[in-house]
């Protein structure tokens, strides 16, 4: 193993690529673990969730190594790892999960009860998620490897599809989870809020699930143009504040069967200012009676940069009475990636889901991560994939 490098959160608005410690088969509290592996990172992506931390919208502390979207090659394993071999290429769910607790056994791996002493749910390189070191790096440790890791069946085939397969760690299952929870099916009319990578992954998921119409709404016209290019109906929110009327121009009705919130707590209204509950309230307005709303967009318990004191503690002004009166269903929370990633891998390998093109993936070097963060923060219509060892470029 050569010297490790990683993307480190320094302070609000600033990240750096720095030398970091080489990974060890250790838990965050320093305990030796034999159920883990060390990976040579093949690809690792910049996520919108990372941007919340970098913008100073969480309680993340300086020095945090970022990155929870990881694909890698096993280079070392503990003696308790039985199902993986040195050299295997694997996808890492962003959820750190033990595989043994009540939640894990029911496939609710996003809220594992044992890997985070402060609350349910763990993740790599993320605030308040158990202290697990992030994977925007050259090497990383993954615990409970037999349970967590999805092994790709063939190295050459995997490397041919690596730009797509790298999306299995988070955004594709997250978008799919949103579509599943919005009960998208054959013939569904679907609205997705947000044309960023997760929104596009949700739209792609709705399409593969059989939706008749998939609309994607945003203020960012570059992202909307890309959404239209890959086959979705763009809804330009700059055109007015009556979302139902804009939807009706596409479908003839101001309501949809399924709505997916891929925006989260940094949502903005037409005034340009933040309105953290606006998307959730719009979802209730436009979703038909007995329709469903999937909420893969991130909402946090503590937001130091929120617009009011209530929102600083995750309290939002929701029109819950409207959703109740319409008998709508809602589903929130982190995606249990393991519930979906194997099926989605098969869809990718068999050319059913060209997700890299749909989210407009752009491969850059690990050393260029700072520029990637800056561009992503400016709203560029791309998904940045970091290539720590130059293997994607070679592929």
UniProtKB/TrEMBL annotation:
GO terms, molecular function: formaldehyde dehydrogenase (NAD+) activity; zinc ion binding
Gene that produces this protein: fdhA1
Cofactor (UniProt): Zn(2+)
Protein name: Glutathione-independent formaldehyde dehydrogenase
SUPFAM superfamilies linked to this entry: GroES-like, NAD(P)-binding Rossmann-fold domains
Sequence ranges assigned to domain Alcohol dehydrogenase-like N-terminal in this UniProt record: 35-153
EC number in record: 1.2.1.46
Enzyme class: oxidoreductase
Family: Belongs to the zinc-containing alcohol dehydrogenase family.
Keyword terms: Metal-binding, NAD, Oxidoreductase, Zinc
Pfam families in alphabetical order: ADH_N
């Amino acid at each position: 193993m050569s010297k490790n490098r990683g993307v480190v959160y320094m302070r609000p608005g600033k990240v750096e690529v720095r030398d970091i410690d080489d990974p060890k088969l250790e838990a965050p509290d320093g305990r030796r673990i034999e159920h883990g592996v060390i990976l040579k990172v093949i690809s690792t992506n910049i996520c919108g969730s990372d941007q919340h931390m970098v913008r100073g919208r969480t309680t993340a502390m300086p020095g945090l190594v970022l990155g929870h979207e990881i694909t890698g090659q096993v280079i070392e394993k503990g003696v308790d790892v039985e199902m993986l071999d040195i050299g295997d290429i694997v996808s890492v769910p962003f959820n750190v999960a033990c595989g043994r607790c009540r939640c894990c056994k029911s496939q609710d791996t996003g809220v594992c009860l044992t890997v985070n002493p402060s609350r349910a749910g763990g993740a790599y390189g993320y605030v308040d998620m158990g202290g697990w070191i992030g994977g925007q790096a050259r090497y990383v440790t993954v615990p409970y490897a037999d349970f967590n890791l999805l092994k790709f069946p063939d190295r050459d085939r995997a490397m041919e599809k690596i730009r797509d397969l790298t999306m299995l760690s988070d955004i594709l299952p997250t978008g799919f989870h949103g579509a599943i929870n919005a009960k998208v099916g054959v013939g569904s009319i679907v609205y997705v809020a947000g044309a960023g990578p997760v929104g596009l992954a949700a739209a792609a998921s709705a399409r593969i699930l059989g939706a008749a119409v998939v609309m994607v709404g945003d203020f960012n016209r570059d992202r909307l143009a890309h959404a239209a290019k890959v086959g979705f109906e763009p809804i330009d929110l700059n055109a007015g504040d009556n979302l139902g009327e804009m939807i009706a121009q596409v479908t003839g009705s101001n309501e949809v069967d399924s709505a997916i919130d891929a925006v989260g707590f940094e949502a903005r209204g037409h005034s340009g200012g933040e309105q953290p509950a606006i998307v959730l309230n719009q979802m209730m307005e436009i979703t038909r009676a007995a329709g469903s709303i999937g909420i893969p967009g991130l909402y946090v318990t503590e937001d130091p940069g929120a617009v009011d004191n209530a929102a600083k503690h995750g309290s939002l002004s929701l029109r819950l009475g409207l959703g109740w009166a319409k008998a709508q269903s809602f589903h929130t929370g982190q995606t249990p990636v393991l519930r979906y990633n194997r099926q989605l891998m098969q869809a990718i390998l068999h050319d059913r889901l060209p997700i890299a093109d749909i989210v407009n993936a752009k491969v850059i070097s690990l050393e260029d991560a700072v520029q990637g963060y800056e561009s992503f923060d400016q709203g560029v219509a791309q998904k940045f994939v970091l290539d720590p060892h130059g293997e994607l470029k070679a592929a």
